[in-house]
Amino acid sequence: MSLTLLGARPFGEEPVDIVIRDGLIAEIVPAGTLSAEDGAADGEIVDVSGRWIGPGMWDSHVHFTQHVIRRSRIDLTQTRSAQDVLDVTVRARADGAVLTGGILMGYGFRDGLWAEPATLAAIDEAIGDIPVVLVSGDLHCGWMNSAAASRLGVQLDASGLLREVPWIEVLHSFDQSDALPLSAYRAAADAAASRGVVGIVEFEKTDNVVEWRSRVQNGITSLRVEAAVWPDRLERVIADGWRTGDPIDDQGLVSFGRLKVVVDGSLNTRTAWCWDPYPGMDPSHPLACGMESVPISELSALLERARDAGIDAAVHAIGDRANSEVLDTFAALGMPGVIEHAQLVREDDFARFAELGLVASVQPEHAMDDRDVADHHWAGRTDRAFAFGSLHRAGAELRLGSDAPVAPLDQWISISAATARSRGEREAWHPEQQVPMDVALAASTRSTLAVGQPADLVITGRDPYACDRDELRDMPVAATLLGGRFTWRTI
């Protein structure tokens, strides 16, 4: 099977013709060298007409089922207070919102800057006759009423909020893949392809080996997937013989990824593990500096077990103490790996990412969502918050992602946030932490535009190097190719 792309323009250079054979880039020659008339080109021929072309996009942090299921939950992303959340939820219920297993569910509230806190009494008063579970935008806590707590067998305090480990167990109890139609997964994968995405790193807390193999077998073939495992399934995958990089499906689209361990919470939930107390917190309070979700001794044992079994690691660390402790753990074990989020980092720790061979997997749109929360809860520390520029200058390898559904599964949004540090009417937030366009693009891809490379490609209507911030966020994608076949095209 062959495909020839005529007149593509890579990286602002002169147009080229590209020949693709057997899923790989076979030739790149000056435009006009190949044509159907002289027989130099064979198979399908597509005139790209001078559009920009580059390697296909990878989103390096996705919770795919959460991303899919978000569409069926009440949208709380525009709410700004506890009362806003309750008003939207009550209206949605009156309008016939669909229940999930008999529970009314919403997604997207952010309570970090609410003037009045969430309370169990308020949600019980607003909706007390049916179970209600509302998921925070960062996925690290949920607000529920007494009926839901009774149904789920959990204990609530006066806030009605359940946080971190107990909450995450509850959250994933709603997300059995067989409860969602295959068509919903296909639509989400195809939507990602329409934005130039060719691959994702899957961090859903489920049996990703079985579920993604089944999805590919059932025709969801528009994405490559690197599928992670959580600690509760680690011994099983070791016993089954899985190693990082092993192919999972017959088409070579899904590979076994890394062990995912979460060592602290999040900024919006004020559970990120920090060296200094959160403003306004009594320093003697056990959560004044956030929380250690997985003890470092346990993290070390998990990573060592995975390493010895040929499984690499990706560790969630948001607060600066979490990052310090995780860096120390990787150093002690002498193993490379990925630190997910790296949102707050001590100055002395930036250089250690490169020194230890660790990748910083970051989500630039989180900086846009959380800048005000950071200015409040990390006051005096935001010069090193979401510090992508500092990480890059220190030599760290960056990978960009969305953490979908926390931010949109759209790498052009991530690239815009990384390079501009602003959106809407606002000025750039800590512009010294911007990264250059070539760095952002490289951090969003896994291949290059070169002979012998996989023909995972994106063709766009604009040259990203010539785009302003908003043009990047709204980048028109003319085509996406995965292994030389179109997964999205308008040309």
TrEMBL record:
It comes from the Bacteria. Residues 44-486 form the Amidohydrolase domain. SUPFAM superfamilies: Composite domain of metallo-dependent hydrolases (SSF51338), Metallo-dependent hydrolases (SSF51556). Pfam families: Amidohydro_3. InterPro entries: Amidohydro_3 (IPR013108), Metal-dep_hydrolase_composite (IPR011059), Metal_Hydrolase (IPR032466). PANTHER family: IMIDAZOLONEPROPIONASE, PROTEIN LONG AFTER FAR-RED 3. This is Amidohydrolase YtcJ. It comes from Microbacterium murale.
